[in-house]
Design goal:
Distance between the termini: 20 Å
Strand content: 15-25%
CATH topology: Rossmann fold
Strand order of the largest sheet: 2-1-3-4-7-6-5
Mean pLDDT: 90
Number of domains: 1
CATH class: Alpha Beta
Helix content: 25-40%
Structural class: alpha/beta
Largest sheet: 7 strands, mixed
Length: 217
């Protein structure tokens, strides 16, 4: 299934020069199986959409959708976000559907909310058996959109006190999935820990960079 033309058309519709237009697009939260808390960070996408509308002139609905990996509904959303601390499982059908979505122009943001890493890697390996996550260099365009992050991902939460890393899955030369590890952008967007405004702003700026990069690919 090829949906790249549809996705590209929808992406361009998300930009507007009039602030009073009806929202054209929604971001989507992935409801996956396996027992992981996919529903975590309830305000993350709302806050990210609002920030992008203000800073990038996008026209997102601030109310996000919830989609399952095996649903045809996923093709209505150019960007899908997945987060959590625990297990993530895809059935064969879900893996095929996710692959069709990503091959066709969709984009997946994966957020390690601490503890997701051992589960998200095999889950995505089921989607793209031939691909491995690669760490994106600091020079990658995703770090140099509206906002510049010359040292890569900002560190939002300490977790294991390891440096933040940004990984990607690259299919036929196109980044189809971005995975933030050891930083937790989603918590920064949601502000569940009452982060200082400087940290929240950095998290939202990096999120806006990801969104802008997806639009420009």
């Amino acid at each position: 299934m090829r949906i790249s033309g549809l996705i590209v058309a929808l992406l361009f519709m998300s930009f507007t020069t009039a602030s009073d237009q009806t929202p054209t697009l929604r971001l989507a939260l992935l409801k996956y199986a396996g027992g992981g808390d996919w529903y975590n960070d309830v305000n993350s996408l709302k806050n990210l959409a609002k920030f992008c509308n203000e800073k990038l002139r996008t026209n997102f609905d601030t109310e996000y959708a919830t989609v399952e990996p095996g649903s045809a509904d996923i093709f209505n959303y150019p960007i899908v976000y997945a987060t959590g601390h625990g297990n993530m499982l895809f059935t064969d059908l879900e893996a095929r559907n996710m692959r069709a979505y990503l091959e066709g122009g969709g984009f997946l943001i994966l957020n390690d909310d601490f503890g997701l890493d051992p589960f998200v890697r095999p889950a995505m390996k089921k989607v793209f058996p031939e691909l491995d996550f690669v760490e994106l260099p600091f020079s990658h365009p995703i770090y140099h959109q509206q906002f510049n992050f010359n040292n890569g991902l900002p560190k939002i939460h300490e977790h294991d006190s390891k440096p933040p890393q940004g990984f990607g899955l690259i299919y036929q030369g196109r980044l189809v999935c971005y995975y933030d590890f050891e930083t937790d952008l989603g918590d920064g967007w949601d502000d569940v820990h009452n982060d200082p405004i400087e940290l929240r702003t950095k998290a939202l700026q990096m999120g806006a960079n990801i969104v802008q990069y997806v639009f420009g690919q």
